[in-house]
Design brief:
Elements: H1 2-24, H2 26-61, E1 68-73, H3 92-100, E2 106-113, E3 120-123, E4 126-129, E5 131-135, H4 139-142, E6 147-150, H5 155-160, E7 164-168, H6 169-174, E8 188-191, E9 194-202, H7 208-212, E10 223-227, H8 228-235, E11 243-248, H9 254-268, E12 275-279, H10 280-323, H11 325-333, H12 338-375, H13 383-409, H14 413-418
Parallel strand pairs: 5-10, 7-9
Antiparallel strand pairs: 1-11, 1-12, 2-5, 2-11, 3-4, 3-8, 6-9, 7-10, 8-9
Length: about 425
């Protein structure tokens, strides 16, 4: 017990000796801090940008439904020697069959039908150009729609061909619909030649970042969704479906769900139509690869800065060993052990790097808080980044101080005292 107490007291004493040595050489200590500080700030910023970028992208991708898949006819795959078959290649009976006999990898599906001639709606005499889609009631779940007011139309309304429609928030605002009150069946919107009941309004979908990089072509907030049976009736065709959007059982099973639906359609129509499938998984993979590439470049730049800072600490510690050789000899002569000398120099290096890490994190946080004002992009401080960067600084200090500490501890008292 006494031995453990003595060892603890010895370590505390060595620590304070290291702190005193650093304070006596403030200029040198400050110069040692600089390289690591910049590197740690860079690491903190890289983690924060990566985490915030990932959160932003995935938040916008979620507005499509992360497990979404799309299947449509692929006109571009028709060869010149193959006869052209008219139509979309997808019929209502195909959708109903897949709905009742869907594979395990497919959780739910909805047809998507667009009007051939109608591209605007009228409300209280005001006309608005808008994206109109005919869908099934399951579309709202697949597409992660969030109700602002009212309700979604039901499967029964789809089957009965009731013209019950759901409008986007921005469209409702442009049509001067009072969304402070619940929507009811007295609100009618003219779609083509049909008076439709407005039953619900969905919240705005934020896709600003994806739109800024041209990943989204259609305006997500100017939409009207109606039962697909109603839009088919407007088109004068009760069977044609433009494309289908489904939700896979999981992101990993997205490609399997795509292939199974395409295989069914290809087999049914005996190869008359070619089909193409898309899944959000491919966009997720692309986003992850881009973020990974940005992270690698950022971490590489930060690592170079940390390496330079680590070498600076090692160089300054070696100079310190030379300048304090006589001091080391005196300490050894009055009873200091090799391990005491070793630990003192390691403590000094670790203290320098730890202070560098703290200053670097403070600098990183300050810069992260400035980024939204300079680039108009929201970014949050990454706690993981702060922890990792601080651990990196301590590790670099330990490695950088090890060689100078070993060199100092290997000096003999006689040669150290004779050193001029």
């Amino acid at each position: 017990m006494n031995k453990r107490i003595n060892n603890t007291i010895r370590l505390i004493s060595i620590f304070f000796e290291a702190k005193t040595a650093l304070l006596e050489n403030r200029t040198r200590t400050a110069l040692s801090l600089l390289g690591i500080t910049i590197g740690i700030a860079s690491v903190s910023i890289v983690f924060s940008v990566n985490d915030s970028g990932r959160a932003l992208i995935f938040k916008e991708l979620e507005t499509f439904g992360l497990k979404s898949i799309w299947i449509s006819r692929n006109i571009s795959q028709i060869s010149t020697d193959q006869p052209f078959y008219p139509g979309t290649g997808i019929a209502t009976e195909d959708y109903l069959y897949l709905k009742n006999n869907r594979p395990k990898s497919l959780r739910v599906m909805s047809p998507v039908v667009t009007p051939r001639t109608v591209n605007s709606v009228v409300y209280n005499g005001k006309r608005l150009n808008i994206s109109i889609v005919g869908v099934d009631s399951s579309f709202f779940t697949i597409n992660n729609e969030s109700l602002l007011k009212g309700r979604f139309f039901s499967a029964d309304e789809v089957q009965r061909r009731d013209c019950s429609v759901v409008l986007s928030e921005k469209a409702a605002d442009l049509l001067h619909i009072d969304i402070s009150n619940d929507t009811h069946r007295d609100d009618y919107i003219l779609v083509g030649d049909k008076f439709c009941s407005l039953v619900g309004i969905v919240s705005k979908k934020n896709r600003d970042f994806l739109s800024s990089i041209n990943a989204v072509k259609n305006e997500p907030d100017l939409r009207l969704m109606a039962p697909y049976t109603v839009i088919q009736e407007l088109n004068g065709d009760s069977s044609a479906i433009g494309h289908m959007q489904g939700e896979a059982s999981s992101i990993a099973l997205s490609n399997d769900a795509l292939h199974r639906v395409i295989d069914y359609l290809t087999a049914k129509y005996q190869g008359k139509y070619a089909y193409r499938g898309e899944s959000l998984k491919s966009y997720i993979d692309t986003a992850n690869n881009i973020l990974k590439g940005v992270s690698v470049m950022g971490v590489t730049a930060a690592a170079i800065s940390l390496l330079v800072g680590g070498l600076a600490i090692m160089n300054i510690m070696l100079i310190s060993v030379v300048e304090r050789t006589k001091e080391i000899g005196i300490r050894m002569a009055i009873g200091a052990r090799k391990t005491d000398i070793l630990l003192q120099f390691i403590f000094e290096a670790v203290l320098i790097s730890l202070l560098s890490g703290i200053f670097g994190e403070l600098l990183g946080i300050a810069l992260i808080k400035l980024i939204p004002y300079i680039f108009a992009v929201e970014i949050e401080v990454s706690v993981v980044g702060l922890v990792v960067s601080l651990l990196c600084s301590v590790f670099i200090g330990l490695i950088s101080g090890l060689y100078p500490a070993i060199r100092a501890s290997n000096l003999t008292p006689i040669e150290a005292l004779r050193y001029e």
